[in-house]
């Protein structure tokens, strides 16, 4: 669908026949607006997924940074534990020295079996008791200190191991979070792309809507029908030269002499029968009448000027060059001037070669069909197209 819309817009830019627009899924403005609403909903969903995923990425990043901080803190703790162990080892050494000094004081040998030797060298029973007691105290003191240091060392060693294990665990967690961020990143890019696609669909659809609105298409009017009429921005004169011989409105009828007879258009004379008559704007031939006793051969062309529907009418034609449904531009020759001798066999309402030119609102024969409605919708052509005053010739269609 997106591609089709883009192709359609491309063709629009090239100015190629707009019938290619029918390739959109929508048949009318109402459906096109529904498509637009669907694209907008799609965009909103993608945007919301986008921010949700971004939030997940942010919290994963936070978790990684917390884990990294913990690893850093643990490294400091490990260093501290190592230092503590070193200090404790020094303390053990110091204690051992103190013990040795104490032993010397009590004349205890520095050998392994020092206490025993010391005890058995007692000179009397009472000396033995004193020596046993002293040895026991020193041994207890020694053991107590060393044990407490060793406990502290092993605590610190355990802490080092625990922290190292925790680091492994945290690194694993970081790895997992990083791979989660990777896949969230992929998700995020796909949501971003989805949102961008939806936005481009929204833009294209909006452009199409504007295009059809400017063509004057109704909400439920089929595009195929609507686009047959190529839009335009204004009208130009239907003849290359000429002069106004009779104005639109109430007048004295040149044949019956009847006062205040309504005249439905502007009469343009000054051209021989057979002179080219052009469409006054881009449009589509909507209605043709052949050899009417009053009006002769007639062509009616449907226009959409700046989004508003109009019909132009051309009467007393000698020949008609177009058929109903033909698309015309403001350069198309739709017929030739008649109303003189060459059409006098059937035409009763023309006194000489001239074009009876009409402009009315709406599409006469499509928007409405009654002649009375056409008459009430008629505009004075000189209020729509700039003509010189009655009797003065113009030599350009612009
Ligand atoms: Zn007329």
Which structural traits does this protein have?
398 residues; alpha+beta; Helix Hairpins; Glucose Permease (Domain IIA); 2 domains; 11-stranded antiparallel sheet; two-stranded antiparallel sheet; 13 strands; 51% helix; 17% strand; disordered N terminus; binds zinc ion
Description:
The protein folds into two domains: 29-213, Helix Hairpins, CATH 1.10.287; 242-394, Glucose Permease (Domain IIA) (Distorted Sandwich), CATH 2.70.70. The protein is 51% helix and 17% strand. The chain has helices at residues 2-14, 29-105, 114-120, 125-215, 223-226, 371-377, 381-384, and strands at 242-246, 249-251, 261-263, 266-269, 276-278, 283-292, 296-305, 308-320, 327-328, 333-337, 355-361, 378-379, 393-394. Strands 1, 4, 5, 6, 7, 8, 9, 10, 11, 12 and 13 form an eleven-stranded antiparallel β-sheet that branches. A two-stranded antiparallel ribbon has the order 2-3. β6 and β7 (296-305) form a beta hairpin. α1 (2-14) crosses α4 (125-215), α2 (29-105) packs antiparallel against α4 (125-215) and α3 packs antiparallel against α4. The longest helix has 91 residues, at 125-215. It starts with a helix and ends with a strand. Zinc ion (ZN) binds at residues 246, 263, 265, 267, 356.
Could you write a compact summary of the structure shown?
The protein is α+β, with helices and mostly antiparallel strands and 398 residues long.
